[in-house]
Amino acid sequence: MITDAAPIVTARIGSPLSWTLKSALDRGAYEGLRKALTMDPAEITQEVLTANLLGRGGAGFEAGRKWGMLAKGDTKYLVINGDESEPCTFKDHMLMEEDPHQILEGVLICAYAIGASQAFIFVRGEFALGLERMTSALNEAYAFGAIGRNILGSGFSLDIVVHPGAGAYICGEETALLESLEGKRGYPRDKPPWFPAVKGLYSAPTIVNNVETMSNLPWIVTNGGAAFAALGLGRSTGTRLFSVSGHVKRPANYEIEMAKPTFRDLLFDPSLGGGIRNDNALKAFVPGGVSAPWFGPDQLDMALDQDAVGKAGSMLGSGSVVAMDDTTCMVRAAWRITRFFHRESCGQCTPCREGGGWLDKIMRRIELGQGRESDLELLLDVCDNIAPGLGWPPQKTTICVLGPSIPSSITSAIRMFRDEFLVHIKEGACPFGR
Amino acid sequence: MAGDPVQAEPLKITVDGKVIEGQPGEMIISAAERGGVYIPRFCWHPRMRPVGMCRMCLVEVKGPRGFALMPACYVPVADGQEVVTDSPKVKKAQDGVLEFLLINHPLDCPVCDRGGECPLQDQTFAFGPGETRFVEEKRHWAKPIPINPLVALDRERCIQCSRCTRFADEVAGDAMIDFIGRGDSTEVNIFEDRPFTSNFSGNVVQICPVGALTATPYRFKARPWDLDLVESTCTACAVGCRISVQSSSNRVIRHLGVDSDPVNHGWLCDKGRFGYEQTDNPDRLRAPMVRKGGELVEVGWNEALTAAAAGLRRIHDASGPDAIAVLGGARLPNEDAYAWAKLAKGVIGTDNVDCQMGDGLPAELVLGLPRATIDEACAASAVVLLAPDLKEDLPVFYLRLREAAVDGNLKLIEMAPLGTGLSRHAEVRLQYRPGEAAAVARALAASRVPEEGAGGVSAADIGAAAELLGAAESVVIVVGRASLAESADSIADAAGVLATALPDARFLSALRRGNVHGALDMGLAPGVLPGRVSLDEGRAWFAEAWGHVPEARGLDAAGVLAAAADHKVQGLVLVGADPISDFPDRALATTALAGVGFTVVVDLFGDGASAAHADVVFPVAGDGERSGTTTNMEGRVTRLGQKVTPPGTARDDWMIAADLARRLGGDLGFETLDDITLEIERLATSHAGVTPAFLAAPGRRDGVVVPLGGAGVAGRPPALRYRPSTPARQAPPVDAYSLRLVAARTLYDAGALVSRSPSLAALAARPCLRANPADLGRMGVTTGDRVRVSSSRTSLVLDVAADPRVLRGSAVLAFNAAGEGAADLIDASQTVTDVRVETVN
Amino acid sequence: MARLTAENIQRARQLIALYPQSRSALIPILHIAQEQDGWLTPDGMAHIAELLDLDPAEVYGTASFYDMFFTHPVGRHLVSVCTNLACLLNGADELLEHAQARLGVAPGGTTADGEFTLEEVECIAFCGAAPCLAVNWRFFGNIGTDDFDRLVEDLAAGRLADDVPPHGTLNRVRRRVGLMAAGPAPALADGTASEPPS
Ligand SMILES: Cc1cc2nc3c(=O)[nH]c(=O)nc-3n(C[C@H](O)[C@H](O)[C@H](O)COP(=O)(O)O)c2cc1C
Ligand code: SF4
Ligand code: FES
Fold first, then answer.
1. Most buried one in B116, B193, B515, B803, CB count within 10 A?
2. Are B639 and B627 in contact (CB under 8 A)?
3. Residue B210, SS3?
4. Within C64-124, where are the H helices?
5. Residues A242, A344: one domain?
6. Spatial contact of C75 and C110, defined as CB atoms under 8 Å apart
7. Gyration radius (Cα) of chain B, Å
8. Distance of alpha carbon A48 from its chain centroid, rounded?
């Protein structure tokens, strides 16, 4: 291990039948809730603020601060984002399958802290097993008295609904998720005015938090926010789950302390990624989901620190790190990501809907050997019309940031591997033989 | 009081350095436009909720972190806000959006119906990039597909602005079209084979910013630059939507809605939009006709006028003026209606005059109840709908009320014997047994709701309605005939009860014919004279002006037809009226027409059922062919526009009235249309001040609601005030073997307008009797069966359908559907009509 | 072409009761319809529209936004091969090519016997075991071409029937309780499985 911090959200994972109530109770489940129910709701929010728990869904916003922004109102909702569809991210999936009670406990703590009237857990539709495990856990928790009326004798009551998605990446975006939860097409809402904390589900104030974010709450309540903040460095506190995939020897989810280890540790440490397959050279890596601009080997020593990565022009995003070795055709990799965004654009905004399709077609042409030199400038200008300035964090001409995520891979590939594009164009074929 | 926050102070924003005032809640795009800065847009429509989807309106707005691109259609104005619409950054963003829109848009402007008036084309010229950088294959869809008989959709041209789908869902409440698919394979479409059967479908054509949606009747008929246009008012119904009448080569080619803030917000129903086909119909009368040797033959105007005058004079001399009756006039402009009223009452001397066909309400009630405007109804806390299905009868009024109920604070109380388009938005529904509206009204007005309820409505529902009304700050009552099988008296009775119980309530009468309110204002009803005055109170004033006024109150349409059947009325003038197809009791109308000795028909067409009895036929000008004014249900007087000339020698109605008057030894005293408007202004209590110049003044495109000054004008007869009369006859109990008939009007029927407009005629449904499944089950009948339906009048074989929304014990039949139907079953002398239903083999 | 069965209407009503606004139950109910028929039939969508007081076009428009809903028939086994980045890097294109050859259909196609529908999908969050695929949303990882052949044989022979229910069946665990926090607790118990699958 790179650091000696004990795991927080994966502590119970790996134990037999970890997803059942009995197994979870044997290992401390719902103790955090019991403690929380003796506290004042504001105290819990304070602990979460002290912990400086950053949202684990992608944007990395402080959870405690978000709760504090919740508008007043009789009816408030808590919605949990379990849509996990950022390519190469597979950690929430694991949490839902392996430790659903931890999520429920976190949801109950959060709902109690913010005074939610009802909570909804939006589970990506494709996660059949996750849905089954979450539903079983819900049934068990109701029977146990942890959900429903007068929870664990505290007088606090809450209902939780496990809601299946139906296959649309965009529903991970919190406002699209709310539309989808209202039974509609998953169209993101324009902010302002649709900041969920002010105007969310059914137009009522709503907190949307990620599954992993919730999973941290029982530990924070049990051990205190300060203990959490003692892990990591600066604003990047606690531990975090990283989904490591691609050309590493040991692709898997790893929970490690934030900010202290580096990307090199994550990809190469024998207890983590274990190095590149066949001991090939690393060509580039995606540092935080395919929406994030790529990094090269020269950035391997950057710490897994949200602010540091942000300053370097990318993001830790959803916590997915994908390694690409030197056998990789970067045009093809970038094209595949472009195709993903093209397919997943909800279609509302002209720049995203039409631009995504156009970029996909140009990238395809280049990869298949029908590119022209002018295509590089064209690609960059079309990208610029979606994300003006091509800076980081991106500006946008669209409603949500799916649009301005499209350029990330294309501009990274052109910036880092312009020659590779030119070879495709000159040779009229992919040099990697596909 | 210094320091106090000032309410409703306009907000000041800066757009490109220019200070512009905005209203709270207003979006930057509209404030900027008012201030002279036009921001391009596609998805934004001023009458729908913004969605901020197309991104064409991106501008820079200064926020806490400096300027950022924001959609001007989605960001409300805020005091001190700084907006830049002309920076290089904005220009690049807008160019980019346009280029994106064009990459998959076909370059077929030369063959596109929208070419020449296409916002996408225009903005490409104004803002767009020069050449295309898109060398890939464009997106393909099968070319135009019909989404209903009136509207075709070309998905390749669609730019996914969602205006049409939002209109269908948000405005019309007919979400039968929606986005299908996702991303760049999103298309607009219908579900399976269920067409976009909305009464408002043409609006999506008008608001489509490209040529994706086109009107089948208009397709390829004209190019926009060849069109001539004039603003006018639609007279397909009494809402009076403002329209632009557009013509090419002396033919009306289309109607477009004009955004009139107090009335139609730019919307039209399909009947109003496509009803111009009626006047454009090649079967229009082109010359007068006179019956010779049993046949109607075309003659010159002089001969026809002489024949008509001779016939009427003969009857007048032999049997007196009361042997003559004039029916119709509710589709005429005010001036023409006035001319006919003056001819009938002032020259001929008969008060047997009625512009309604037994399907409306007593004139005194319509004219004498305190009136509301449409805006007032929408702003009211509660509206009582003692009315027909407004979605069918007064479609754009339905849109207005629906919007107020869905988006505003309006609460609806529906009192109707059937479900309507507004039922789902009603706070309380009082679905009464046909004929028992008055009983429900009495229960509602009572200090304590009777425990057993009333008229088939539960005490709980009546109590809820009473409570709502009690708490309402302002109440508007819409009064009309939900069923023509239930007597007007019973509705008048109910309205009277409500008027007494709610003395501050205001009323709107839900009468359908285009200018029925204007015709009533002009005196085309028994017992009244022009200006909303009673015959008795106006007698002296008009006797002096006209030289003659009838002695006593005459007969209404039902009375006239009954008298004609008895040969007491021997001369009948039908001014755009066809009692055999319009009067609720067809047996009576048929006998009456057969019994009249001499019939003059003044119409667009000469082949209506009643015209078969004509002795003289005069062809007249129709909509788009004549000027004048018209009056809508609120009493709003607007100007009609003339764009084309009538066919053949057809003339304006008022000219025929004036010519007939001369031949009958009188003189209406009119040389021009303005002469009439000025006389109305001079004599009518309700129209004081409404001169042609006043109406033509700038800023009066939406017309004026009369009377202008409120109560009365010194020296003129006093305005009518409605006094509820004795309670109407009660409906007898319905026997266990019968169903009580509800004859409800539909937008598309066998009436003159629809049946002469080929595109609309196809939409009129066959008559089909709808009844509650429980009742049908009892009779052993199911949907799709043919049944024998018998009343005291006759028995018919009809299709039947089970409909759980129909009250048990009743049966709903569309009035005036093609062929035999409700009018054949109804006995207008009864308060209700009961029918028996049996299977036929 | 089926409307919902009486039992499924009951399930739909229970779902509607879980949400503050009935339309929220649309997607869960669409899953039930797809479980019933394997795809969303026109009659099924029209029936759901009735239950939720929507226009069928709205139901269709909503369903068509989501990849998991099919408005045309698909095979009993929906084989979803991921070709997104992590899988691409680990041979997903080759796997997809092999799958096409083995099943004899292109992505989007269904085998003549109605057993298999092949589709190419975006990341299914099983990247730790790339290349991977899902069959009726049950995941299989580290799939080489031989593994694929074996999997198809097992599926066709019904050897995986316990793990892989027919297409459309998503969540085999039924919620057992209605909402209780807001008011009296309506029990939902309908005697169906609520035990976690192992
Ligand atoms: C296109 C897009 C996709 C997203 N997908 C997810 C997702 O799958 N899961 C998730 O938790 N957050 C996702 N997010 C982020 C959410 O919008 C939101 O920020 C997050 O759920 C908040 O939770 P947190 O504060 O706990 O991180 C996505 C955002 C965007 C713009
Ligand atoms: S940016 Fe793309 S995904 Fe986001 S709202 Fe716009 S069209 Fe939809
Ligand atoms: S007009 Fe503003 S986004 Fe379309």
1. B515
2. yes
3. coil
4. 85-88, 92-103
5. no
6. yes
7. 28
8. 19
What is the structure's pLDDT at B5? Answer: 44
Work out the pLDDT band at C183, boundaries 50, 70, 90: low
When CB atoms are compared, the residue of B53, B96, B137 closest to A397 is B96
CB contact under 8 A, C65 and B191: no
Residues C95, C149: one domain? yes
Integer Cα distance of B772 and B417 in angstroms: 13
The pLDDT tens digits of the residues spanning B704-735 come to: 999 997 667 889 999 999 998 788 888 898 88
Tell if the CB–CB gap between B174 and C64 is shorter than 8 Å.
no
In this complex, the residue of A355, A384, A395 whose CB is nearest that of residue B69 is A395
Cβ proximity of B235 and B306 under 8 Å: no
Domain C-terminal end among A292, A325, A358:
A325
Q: How many CB atoms lie within 10 A of CB B698?
A: 5
Query: One-letter amino acid identity for B756?
Result: R
Write down the pLDDT at residue B727: 87
Can you give the pLDDT at residue B747? 96
Q: Which domain holds residue C124?
A: 77-157
Nearest CA to ligand 2 atom 4: A400
Q: Tell me, what's the pLDDT at C187?
A: 54
Helices (H), B381-478: 390-393, 395-407, 437-445, 459-471
Closest CA to B506 of B481, B478, B527: B478
- B187 near C CB under 8 A: no
Q: What is the pTM of this model?
A: 0.96
pLDDT averaged over chain B? 95
* Model confidence band, residue B110 (pLDDT cutoffs 50, 70, 90): confident
- Grade residue C197 by pLDDT with cuts at 50, 70 and 90: very low
The C-alpha atoms of residue B388 and residue B744 are separated, in whole angstroms, by 7
Q: At what angle do helices C26-37 and C6-16 cross, to 10 degrees?
A: 160
Query: Could you tell me if C67 and C86 lie in one domain?
Result: no
Given a cut of 80, whether residue C63 has pLDDT beyond it is: yes
Please report the pLDDT score of residue B726 as a whole number. Answer: 81
Q: Same domain, yes or no, for A151 and A259?
A: no
Q: Any chain B CB within 8 A of the CB of C56? A: yes
Q: Do C85 and A166 touch (CB under 8 A)?
A: no
Alpha-carbon span A266 to A243, nearest angstrom: 10
**What is the average per-residue pLDDT within B440-450?**
93
For an interface test with C, the pick among A97, A117, A122, A126 (most C C-beta atoms closer than 10 Å) comes out as A126
Asked if B691 and B678 count as a contact pair (C-beta separation under 8 A), the reply is yes
* C194: confidence class by pLDDT, cuts 50, 70, 90: very low
Please state, in angstroms and rounded to a whole number, the distance separating the CA atoms of residues A423 and B200. 58
Selecting from C83, C127, C196 the residue whose C-beta is nearest the C-beta of A88 gives C127
Per-residue pLDDT reduced to its tens digit, A4-17: 789 999 999 999 99
> What does the pLDDT read at residue C191?
41
Looking at the fold, whether C2 and C63 belong to one and the same domain comes out as: yes
Q: Determine the pLDDT at residue B128.
A: 63
| The pLDDT value given to residue B131 | 72
Q: Which subunits have 3 or more CB–CB pairs within 8 Å of chain C?
A: A, B
CA of A56 to the centre of ligand 1 (A): 8
Q: How far apart are CA B66 and CA B223, in angstroms?
A: 47
Q: How far apart are CA B490 and CA B614, in angstroms?
A: 34
In chain C, the number of structural domains is 2
Range of the domain at A350: 330-427
Contacts of residue A54, defined as CB under 8 A and 6 or more positions apart, other chains included, come to: A60, A61, A62, A63, A235, A236, A237, A306
Q: Which sign does the torsion angle of CA B486, B489, B494, B499 carry?
A: positive
Domains held by chain A: number: 3
Residues of chain A with pLDDT below 70 are: 1-2, 434
Task: Say if the Cβ atoms of B93 and A397 lie within 8 Å.
Answer: yes
- CA B458 – CA C171 distance, rounded (Å): 44
pLDDT on residue B447: 86
